Amino acid sequence: MFVYMLNIHLILIFIVNICQGIERPLVIGHRGSAYLPELTLESQSIAHAYQADMVEIDVCLTRDNQLIVIHDLYLNAVSNVKDIYPNRSRSDGYHYVIDFDLNELRNLTIHERIIPFTNTQVYPARFPSSSSIPFHLATLNETIELLLGLSHSTNQQYQLLIEIKNPEYHSQYNTSISSILISTLQAYNLTESHHPIVIQTFHIEDLLYIRENLNSRLRLIALLTWNHLNESSSNFDFYRSEEGLQKLETFVQAIAPNMELLVNFAEDGSIINVTNLTVLAHKYNLAVYPWTFRHDTYKGNFEQLIDFFHRTVQVDGFITSQPDIVIELLEKKI
């Protein structure tokens, strides 16, 4: 019965896509979009304006248990925290989100991602990290309000893909970030599989906890990578196997693997061959949304890359920093 209900949820995903007129793979705006500092409300707004089917965000907890939208567990790569709070770093030199209350984080300004302590911009072609424009961190509540407000004002359906950052790390502080997330969503009556919220995390056991212990009916996605990267204690080797995918089918609707788990690349970036992961995932009714497609860093022919993943690998969606470019390339092929 449980598997049957989850298959119904999968059908609902396709119904939502049909209602939105989507005849191509989904396009998910990674951290909003690449055109303004990541994950700010402004960056998210651009992704929505470019008609991304979903906007992907990351959430961490503050010291006072507020959900803040930020990719890293620390603040140094995207903010002026070392200038505002010079004496609040830990012994490793980093300022961690969970060491600050929300009101303290409101004092920070956000810039394009840099390598901490060097001021070297990670993606040089993107918005200048030296800009004096005062971007700010957003809370999950503000992000949801943006989503709902835009849906109301444009009469279009927008969707949000929420990544829970490192639940195991947060559990060290005697708190369940997943429980707080579900409670926050419940306050907005965002609880059903057809609602515009999807949750993902690298800690796959937390997804099972959300489904079984928190009784959430929201759509869930299992992020997959290599074990040696230590994104979580989950055994990704197992979850990429047929047995693992068969288990995932019982509580998630999709997988989001590193693109290199679907395609073997040569050192020069050329494609060697396709793995069996997409075929196996589809065998167990799991959609496949690989990450991260970056037009500004890919050294080969980006159009050919998107076409290959679309036509040959047959993925169900793309997680990309440039949703507008990927949408244009996909619709050009229809």
UniProtKB/TrEMBL annotation:
<dbReference type="InterPro" id="IPR017946">
    <property type="entry name" value="PLC-like_Pdiesterase_TIM-brl"/>
</dbReference>
<dbReference type="GO" id="GO:0006071">
    <property type="term" value="P:glycerol metabolic process"/>
</dbReference>
<keyword id="KW-0378">Hydrolase</keyword>
<keyword id="KW-0732">Signal</keyword>
<dbReference type="GO" id="GO:0006629">
    <property type="term" value="P:lipid metabolic process"/>
</dbReference>
<comment type="similarity">
    <text>Belongs to the glycerophosphoryl diester phosphodiesterase family.</text>
</comment>
<protein>
    <recommendedName>
        <fullName>glycerophosphodiester phosphodiesterase</fullName>
        <ecNumber>3.1.4.46</ecNumber>
    </recommendedName>
</protein>
<feature type="domain" description="GP-PDE">
    <location>
        <begin position="25"/>
        <end position="330"/>
    </location>
</feature>
<feature type="signal peptide">
    <location>
        <begin position="1"/>
        <end position="21"/>
    </location>
</feature>
<keyword id="KW-0319">Glycerol metabolism</keyword>
<dbReference type="Pfam" id="PF03009">
    <property type="entry name" value="GDPD"/>
</dbReference>
<dbReference type="GO" id="GO:0008889">
    <property type="term" value="F:glycerophosphodiester phosphodiesterase activity"/>
</dbReference>
<dbReference type="InterPro" id="IPR030395">
    <property type="entry name" value="GP_PDE_dom"/>
</dbReference>
